[in-house]
Design a protein that fits this description.
The structure holds 2 protein chains of 2 kinds. By secondary structure, chain A is α/β, with parallel strands linked by helices. Chain A is 33% helix and 25% strand. Chain A has helices spanning 64-71, 101-107, 123-133, 140-153, 157-160, 173-185, 203-216, 229-235, 258-263, 268-274, and strands spanning 24-35, 38-49, 53-57, 81-89, 92-93, 108-111, 191-195, 221-225, 238-244, 250-257. By secondary structure, chain B is mostly helical. In chain B, 36% of the residues are buried. Classes of the chains: A alpha/beta, B mainly alpha. The A-B interface holds A 72, 74, 77, 79, 102-106, 109-110, 112, 114, 116-121, 129-130, 133-134, 166-167, 169-170, 180, 183-184, 187 and B 109, 175, 177-178, 180-188, 191, 195-196, 199-200, 202, 290-294.
């Protein structure tokens, strides 16, 4: 380890004596989420490794999406919703009183199940607008550069470079989803949360998104919620398995390296689920 | 033919003929209701054109009515300009206030929104003559004289609920996923409304505005004791101002005089053409406002 060459990019600032694998971007500590008085997520602790893909799997209604939405403070936007426990982002408490939830959402991007490009905006504007509104762009040249860079990162540039002025909703479903990824990247987030990003897409578009994720994790930390266990095993580095408890709240059964979860799970519940013997 | 085959044929034929008859009846009903709806519309159109078109001349648009209603000649310039000024000012006030009201009540939600919606519903149901009296006591009594401003306020009150309801309905239809998208991108709320929600709903909002303008431009009752009317041409909204519905009303009351009657008919025709023009312009703008692939 001591002779390791200095890594490029975001990993430069890593401490020499800390193995890269140990560095956490986000750390959930006994997080519970409520809708009114109903608890839907029960005391989940989850270390999210930096520059890795963390998959959250589990049956429908076990609180996977809710848990994801706690991380970028979207959960609290639902009237009556609240969060207990602690979520750290590089050691900072995301729920501290002096933290601006809007700033959290700019730092931690999110991609939704259904592609949701802004219907009245062109492809170019869909990517540029959020960055422009957040004052990240100095001039038109910087804007064009950002749009190209983000569309390239989202593996969409070659398909749309000749029709940047076309409406964002004129694209196919898979292209729209990549446009939404590009739009999220335009804010230069650090963490990307993906809530079943491929469930509305066909297998080819799904594969494209998966390849894209593998590329993106060099720069970003990714947390993906997925129903598709093959997808989790294909793309993720570590996997968390959630299920529904007797109290109708989701809880964490097991979290480990993805290989471990799918080949050698410690818990019977996990084994039943990943081998399709669930319920 | 086997027995089962003939049975089958009988069954299939009988149901299909019954179904066809029912379908035919529904089709006739649909055509009948179309004709029924078109009859008054076409009748009004033919009547207005037949009665009004002979009044139309260059003079009709460029001069003001004669002092004596029974006299021939003169035009309706003052009324056209007065109507456009007052309706224009009313729209200028009612559109931003109406949209803002809809947006804020939607955003705040809960009891405030319910209260706003209730007040708007009441306002929408208010007879226009009551709006006239209300503005009379509020503006005319306070300022001590009738004025175009008072008329514009009355028309704005007429327009407001139409715009609020239209905007509210459209924002309600705006996709929840789009809303989440703006939130997740850390967009400020006013930004999302200005740059995403309003543009998405724009074509519908414009239709709502056109509806409001069409309603206001033809209102007579709220203007009787606010703008009052004026036989002379004026651009000063601080004075009593003439309006086309007022001119129709006063001239039609004197229908014993052929000149007054013709003037009323001519004005009515011009008013209808203006409303039609606004509607067509609104549709055109609304279509332009939609993204290219949804036109």
């Amino acid at each position: 380890m001591t002779t390791m060459a200095p890594a490029a990019g975001p990993s430069e600032e890593r401490e020499q004596d800390v193995p890269a694998s140990a560095e956490l971007a986000v750390e959930l500590d006994r997080v519970s989420a409520y809708y009114g008085s109903r608890r839907v997520v029960r005391e989940i602790s989850l270390p999210v490794r930096r520059n890795a893909i963390t998959a959250i799997i589990g049956p429908s209604g076990c609180g996977k999406s809710t848990l994801l939405r706690c991380i970028d403070r979207m959960h609290e936007l639902t009237p009556g919703a609240r969060v207990e426990g602690r979520i750290d982002y590089h050691g900072m408490d995301l729920y501290a009183p002096d933290i601006d939830p809007v700033a959290v959402r700019r730092t931690i991007g999110m991609v939704f199940q259904q592609p949701n490009p802004f219907p009245t905006m062109s492809i170019h504007d869909n990517v540029a607008a959020p960055a422009r509104f957040n004052g990240l762009l100095a001039n038109k040249a910087a804007e064009n550069e950002l749009v190209e860079r983000c569309l390239r990162q989202a593996a969409l540039w070659d398909e749309v470079k000749d029709k940047l002025k076309a409406g964002g909703t004129s694209l196919s479903g898979g292209q729209q989803q990549r446009l939404c990824i590009a739009r999220a990247l335009a804010l230069e987030p650090d963490v990307l949360l993906m809530d079943e990003p491929c469930s509305a897409l066909d297998p080819i578009a799904t594969l494209q998104i998966e390849h894209l994720m593998a590329d993106l994790k060099r720069i970003y930390t990714i947390v993906i919620v997925t129903h598709n266990m093959q997808q989790a095993s294909r793309v993720s580095d570590q996997t968390a398995f959630l299920t529904l408890g007797d109290d109708r709240a989701g809880f964490l059964v097991e979290m480990a390296e993805t290989v471990e979860i799918f080949t050698n799970p410690k818990q019977q519940l996990t084994e039943d689920y990943v081998s399709g013997r669930f319920g | 033919m086997s027995r089962s085959a003939s049975l089958a044929a009988e069954r299939l034929r009988s149901t299909s003929s019954a179904r066809r008859a029912r379908e035919r009846a529904l089709e006739i009903c649909a055509w009948a209701s179309l004709v029924l709806a078109l009859v008054p519309l076409v009748a009004i159109g033919i009547f207005l054109i037949g009665q009004g078109v002979r009044s139309l001349s260059l003079e009709f648009f460029t001069s003001d009515p004669p002092g004596d209603l029974s006299a021939t000649g003169g035009g309706i310039r003052n009324a056209v300009v007065g109507t456009l000024m007052m309706t224009g000012l009313a729209t200028l006030v009612a559109v931003p206030v109406g949209i803002a009201l809809a947006v804020f009540s939607r955003e705040i939600g809960g009891r405030v929104a319910a209260a706003v919606r209730f007040v708007v519903d009441v306002l929408a149901g208010l007879p226009s003559i009551v709006v006239g009296i209300f503005v009379y006591s509020l503006v005319v009594v306070a300022t001590g004289h009738f004025s175009g401003y008072a008329g514009a306020v009355a028309l704005a009150v007429i327009e407001l609920p139409v715009i609020v309801v239209a905007t509210d309905e459209l924002l309600r239809l705006t996709d929840r996923r789009i809303d989440e998208g703006t939130r997740a991108l850390g967009m400020l709320r006013w930004r999302s409304f200005l740059s995403v929600f309003i543009p998405t709903a724009l074509s519908g909002i414009i239709t709502g505005i056109m509806l409001a303008v069409s309603r206001a431009i033809g209102e007579t009752a709220p203007l009787i004791f606010t703008a009052l009317g004026n036989n002379f041409f004026t651009l000063d909204l601080n004075e009593p101002v003439q309006a086309m519905p007022l001119l129709i009303y006063r001239n039609a009351l004197n229908s014993a005089f052929p000149a007054a009657r013709d003037r009323a008919m001519g004005t009515a025709l011009v008013l209808v053409v203006i409303v039609l023009g606004f509607n067509l312009a609104g549709r055109w703008i609304a279509r332009r406002a939609r993204p290219a692939d949804q036109r």
